[in-house]
Amino acid sequence: MGHKDYLFQKRLALKLPLDSFRFDFRGNHETPGTWRQGALEEDLVDLEVVVEYLKSTYGYIVDLVVGHSRGSLVGIRWACTSQDETPAAAVWKAHFDKQGYYDWSVSVARKPVTVKIFPDDLETFTNWDSSIVWGEFPPSVDVLTIHGLSDTTVPP
Fold first, then answer.
1. How many CB atoms sit inside 10 A of residue 83's CB?
2. pLDDT attached to residue 144
3. Segment 79-88 long-range contacts (CB within 8 Å, at least 24 positions apart)
4. DSSP states along 98-116
């Protein structure tokens, strides 16, 4: 069972160049209620209530949701089902409307690269069915997550 200051969350929040609001799902750490293993729908409701509170009380637009383990599942579900348009999505949409594509500038192998992202490409990407992992992922296969060399939570 995790909580809002578990592992990296508090340190990450302090380093990000934006306001943050960390909270515990019901029944976790400082939040009252009953914790239940399968209560992902309740966790989603908790996140929706927090987002609505931040919007109505402070006028916030949620730019980023960070979660660990179960919290990442809930954050992904919220992102997929929320009617809120993030500022990043608004920027892409504005470029799509204006010029038909978005120029994405990134660094690859320490070299600057700019690629064009078209609406159809984004649609294809977001509609990729990744649910295959639930029923078809081989149980004999391990997955490795790689962290940066400056990661102090999971040292190299």
1. 4
2. 55
3. 81/44, 82/48, 82/51, 84/51, 86/61, 86/62, 87/61, 87/63, 88/63
4. HHSSEEEEEEETTEEEEEE
Question: What is the value of pTM for the model shown?
Answer: 0.57
**142 pLDDT higher than 70:** no
Amino acid found at 82: S
For residues 21 and 51, the answer to whether their CB atoms sit within 8 Å is: no
Using one digit for the tens of pLDDT, what is the confidence trace for 33-62?
Answer: 877 777 889 999 999 999 999 999 999 988
Structure tokens at 58: 């402070």
In terms of Cβ atoms closer than 10 Å to its own Cβ (0-12, 13-18, 19+), residue 70 is: middle
